From TrEMBL:
It holds the Pfam family bZIP_2. Residues 13-63 form the BZIP domain. It comes from Blepharisma stoltei. One of its GO terms (molecular function) is DNA-binding transcription factor activity. This is BZIP domain-containing protein.
Length: 96
């Protein structure tokens, strides 16, 4: 082999080695970027789960308030009916 061929082969080998190292570095950066994105997404999932739990808790509180309001409304209707009945009875007794 000629000296120029050896030098050319060495350059080619060196270039391959550099490309290989660059590809490894790029792959590592890509993996690290994906890991960071996954960590961010997992964090968002936890955050959304917490927010969902809070919203469900608020919904439950509102449902309890609505139920209490219906119950109170029903009781007031019964009281009002009794008062109307008593009023009509008083009117009838006053007629006589």
């Amino acid at each position: 082999m000629k000296a120029s061929e050896v030098t050319s082969n060495e350059k080619t080998t060196e270039q391959r080695q550099q490309r290989l190292e660059m590809n490894r570095a790029a792959a590592m950066r890509s993996r690290n970027k994906k890991k960071m994105e996954m960590m961010r997404f997992k964090s968002l999932v936890v955050e959304l789960s917490n927010e969902k739990a809070l919203l469900l808790q608020k919904i439950q509180q509102y449902e309890m308030l609505i139920q209490a309001s219906y119950t109170e409304n029903s009781m007031l209707k019964v009281e009002m009916s009794q008062l109307i009945f008593e009023n009509s009875m008083l009117k009838q007794t006053l007629k006589y």
